[in-house]
């Protein structure tokens, strides 16, 4: 297995974190679930992020950036910008 650079691991984990939160909700999201979603061992997650709180904070920052930039990682391209924005706001509300 090829070892991923830290930045690639970080991106994969953040993308996985967004998918897991969208699918399972914030309260059901665990670091184990995120690592599994990213197809990485849990140790890789803890190599990149010191804690669950650090990972969630980075995820929240990424989601906020995606809102500002109008990007959406998992929703359909046919979804209207308003629906995407409302969905992201709902995602952020779940994190808070």
Strand content: under 5%
Distinct helical segment count: 5
Shape: globular
Question: What's the end-to-end separation, in Å?
Answer: 37 Å
Uncertain parts: none
Average pLDDT, all residues:
82
The level of helicity is 55-70%
Beta strand count: 0
Radius of gyration: 13 Å
- The ordered H/E elements are HHHHH
Classify the secondary structure makeup into a structural class.
mainly alpha
Largest sheet: none
Explain this structure.
- By secondary structure, the protein is mostly helical.
- Helix content is 69%, strand content 0%.
- It contains five helices and no strands.
- It has helices at 6-24, 31-37, 42-48, 52-69, 81-95.
- Helix 4 packs antiparallel against helix 5 (81-95).
- It is globular and about 40 Å long.
Please tag this protein with its features:
single chain; 96 residues; mainly alpha; 0% strand
Summed up:
This protein is 69% helix and 0% strand.
Helix and strand arrangement:
Layout: H1 6-24, H2 31-37, H3 42-48, H4 52-69, H5 81-95
Helix pairs in contact: 1-2, 1-4, 4-5
